[in-house]
User: Which sequence fits this backbone?
């Protein structure tokens, strides 16, 4: 059986990502920054973090 | 070093403070974040076998039924959720649609949405809990680690630390177990900026390591400029901000980095007594692999990239 695609470790849930952008460090390394709706559980949710209805 | 399975066993539910019937191995595949579990039940079906049912506060984000809505209201944005409110929410029907909120109506406690923390706001520390400890470094020789898991393996258990009943007042200084300085080579996976102006850095192992493991390390908001710790904390914070530049700093929501950014961190150990019961820090996507509420706080030196 072929290996299933596996996301790299440490990635957020796909549904929490609101924006992505490139970042080049001062040393020249390239990264992607993924902005998310995730907050610490005891912090108030972000205003954009409203639950969305699932299409059934 | 103990194996990940040993390091991620708990004998007490952080959310409620209750003891588990037997140790719970959170490193097993498919386990929930430890601070989402509010109770456990033993289940012995007629066909045989014994199972443990872990009842959690986790709900699908898109659910808008009364039970899910009540559960979200009971836990999200609340440091120490009321178990009575959680239990009441669990009894509601998941098939009943949540009542529509009236504009301008009274909002449930803890749900007041904050203004997102500005990426380039004040650098001064704006918190109070354990301020003395958070804004000072331990006096101790530096211990070197090349793997976050090795560092976590040296930390006293949460159960041990909770028994110390560390005060969370502003004048609460480091206890003996926290008087340690560390130097660790690791990776930055995610970061956010808190309302007290700390940056929460989620630091983990090499991405090629077989068992993921993360812990929180914090860039403190700054103490007054006459504080002995000010020069180091200011230089560290400046180094972090310079690396990203103002436009790429995190706000209230966690930013994740792909690939994870290599980082070398120096700092003092700190037990997050404020969150020893209730909900722990960390982004929901990684919390199931954050076995401890110990932190490095403050970070006194950081090298990124």
Assistant:
């Amino acid at each position: 059986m072929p290996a299933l695609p596996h996301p790299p470790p440490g990635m957020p849930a796909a549904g929490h990502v609101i924006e992505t952008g490139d970042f080049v460090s001062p040393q020249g390394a390239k990264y992607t920054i993924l902005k998310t709706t995730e907050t610490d559980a005891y912090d108030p949710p972000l205003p954009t973090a409203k639950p969305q209805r699932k299409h059934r | 070093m103990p194996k990940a399975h040993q390091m991620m066993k708990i004998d007490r539910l952080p959310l409620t403070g209750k003891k588990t019937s037997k140790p719970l191995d959170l490193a097993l595949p498919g386990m929930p974040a430890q601070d989402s579990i509010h109770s456990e039940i033993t289940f012995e079906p007629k066909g045989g076998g014994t199972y443990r049912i872990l009842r959690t506060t986790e709900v699908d984000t898109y659910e808008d039924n009364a039970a899910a809505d009540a559960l979200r209201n009971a836990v999200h944005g609340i440091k120490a959720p009321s178990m009575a409110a959680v239990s009441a929410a669990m009894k509601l029907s998941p098939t009943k649609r949540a009542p529509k909120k009236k504009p301008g109506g009274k909002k449930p406690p803890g749900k007041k949405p904050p203004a997102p923390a500005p990426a380039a706001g004040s650098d001064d520390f704006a918190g109070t809990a354990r301020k003395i400890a958070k804004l000072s470094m331990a006096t101790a020789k530096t211990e070197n680690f090349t793997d976050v898991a090795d560092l976590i393996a040296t930390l006293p258990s949460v159960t041990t630390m909770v028994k110390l009943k560390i005060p969370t007042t502003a004048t609460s200084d480091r206890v003996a177990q926290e008087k340690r300085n560390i130097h660790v080579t690791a990776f930055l996976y995610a970061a956010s900026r808190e309302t007290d102006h700390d940056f929460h850095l989620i630091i983990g192992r090499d991405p090629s390591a077989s068992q993921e493991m993360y812990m929180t390390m914090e860039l403190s908001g700054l103490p007054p400029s006459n504080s002995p710790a000010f020069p180091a904390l200011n230089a560290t914070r400046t180094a972090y901000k310079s690396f990203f530049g103002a436009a790429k700093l995190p706000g209230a929501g966690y930013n994740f980095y792909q690939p994870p950014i290599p980082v070398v961190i120096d700092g003092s150990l700190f037990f997050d007594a404020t969150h020893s019961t209730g909900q722990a820090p960390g982004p929901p996507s990684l919390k199931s692999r954050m076995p401890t509420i110990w932190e490095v706080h403050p970070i006194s030196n950081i090298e990124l990239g």
